[in-house]
Amino acid sequence: LQGIVQAYKSGITLQGNTTSLGRWDFSGSFFFSISAITTIGYGNLSPSTAAGRIFCIVFALFGIPLNLVLLNEIGQLMLLGVQHCACRLEEVFHWQNKASFLMKTCALVTGLLLFLLLPPLLFSDKEGWSYEEGFYYSFITLSTIGFGDYVIGMNPDRTYPSWYKNVISLWILFGMAWLALVIKFCINLLE
Predict the structure, then answer these.
(1) Per the UniProt record, which residue ranges are transmembrane (predicted)?
(2) What is the CATH number that goes with domain 1-190?
């Protein structure tokens, strides 16, 4: 077993009827599904049979458009929340443009904290990465670049809590929606 783990750490992937170090439990499968429909595609997990590959294609054909609809809805809800708060501030304090600017700034700072600045602390604790590595992983993941050089829950020397991959999967969905809003805001500024 030690030789298999060492080979895995060196980047060698075993073919055949293996459990792949437990990655196909519910959390691992959910994480794989999220990385597929968000088009992150880390490259560390993939179907190894023809039937699995065909299923993955069909799953992605339906999952990617549905995910785009979901991300759009989440983003719109976030935007509605910010706009609602700005309207309330305008009513209470009789601020015109200040309330909108304040709420956009608060949404940006809150999103930076929740999606880019605080998650690296969790990754440092659970993965043993440095803060910089965790921040890099956060941005590469949420921007859907997904190089695969850093992927959560893959170190065979570590024990991960059962909630970990599920929480990270939700973080990816909400973080992508937030980052899409930020990118849209930047595009509007540039135009």
Answers:
(1) 26-45, 52-71, 101-123, 135-153, 168-190
(2) 1.10.287.70
